Amino acid sequence: AENQRKRYLSADEWARLAAALKDMEADNAPFVAFVRLLAFTGCRKSEVLAARWDWIDFDRKVLILPDDKARQRGEKENKEVVLAAPALKVLQGIKRIEGNPHVVVGRKRGDHLRNPNLRWAALCKKAKLKDFRLHDIRHSFGTTATGAGFSLPVLGAMLGHRQSETT
User: Fold this and answer.
1) Radius of gyration of the chain (CA)
2) From CA 37, how far away is CA 44, in angstroms rounded?
3) By CB count within 10 A, which of 22, 121, 145, 147 is most buried?
4) Residues 142, 144: Cα–Cα separation, whole Å
């Protein structure tokens, strides 16, 4: 049996997180875009960090993620993440860096953001969020979608779960 810690944001905490992100935007634009993409897509941290511009289909409004688990099973499927209007707006506001294929750029030329933990700690402090991990954004995305009336099968598809038990 798994003993997973789950933490969800309240409406007030979402508002404080949004305000803190706005305050950090001028000095930490790639990090702020990263957190907003987590919040608007429900993706895993590693999926957003690794995302490349050529994985985004703006016409279809999807982020096409290579599905490593499917490849390990010998399948050739990719995971498609629907990009709602807020996620598209974030993506359209990101400045592309010549020679860097990544959406969320890092300090090294051609690389993506690597260790967001220090900035995350500063953001949580600014937003007065206690005991909240980056992965908890994914949990909060799920509970927000459920509260908005999305069914568990739809939510599972949004989160990329293959089994309904996971959702």
Assistant:
1) 16
2) 10
3) 145
4) 5
- 62 forms beta bridges with 57, 82
Q: 56, 113 in Cβ contact below 8 A?
A: no
Q: How far is residue 90 CA from its own chain's centroid?
A: 11
Between the CA of residue 103 and those of 30, 106, 137, 160, what are the distances in Å? 8, 10, 19, 20
Query: Between helices 117-127 and 11-24, what is the axis angle to 10°?
Result: 120
- The type of residue at 9 is L
Per-10-residue mean pLDDT, the chain, length 167: 69 94 95 96 92 96 79 70 92 95 93 93 96 86 61 56 53
Residue pair 124/132 in contact by the 8 Å Cβ criterion = yes
Chain center to CA of 29: 15
Cβ(9)–Cβ(17) below 8 Å: yes
For 56, phi then psi, to 5°, come to -100, 125
Q: For residues 103 and 95, is the Cβ–Cβ distance under 8 A?
A: no
> Cα 12 vs. chain centroid, distance in angstroms?
20
Give the residue carrying structure tokens 């592309």: 96
User: pTM of the entire structure?
Assistant: 0.82
